[in-house]
Specification:
The chain is an all-alpha fold. Helix content is 61%, strand content 0%. It has a domain at 10-55.
Length: 72
């Protein structure tokens, strides 16, 4: 693993530590989770394109009756 040095307000860091502690994790673990989600966002465009491709046969604008919407 590579170390990263960040700068932030001391009070903000302490608040983040308390939040992490309340979630039973370290601030480092919380940061790694955030970093994974942040990095994954860049791939969301490809996921969106794949979803749109799968939904290409869906016809927008169809209106359902109340009974159709409540069918289970």
């Amino acid at each position: 693993m590579k170390n990263v040095t960040l700068s932030a307000d001391e009070a903000l860091i302490e608040q983040a530590r308390l939040v992490a502690k309340s979630q039973h994790k370290t601030l480092n673990a919380a940061f790694r989770e955030w970093l994974q989600r942040y990095a994954a966002e860049s791939g969301s465009g490809a996921a969106y394109d794949a979803l749109m491709h799968r939904l290409r046969d869906v016809q927008p604008g169809r209106h359902f009756t109340r009974d159709e919407m409540n069918e289970r």
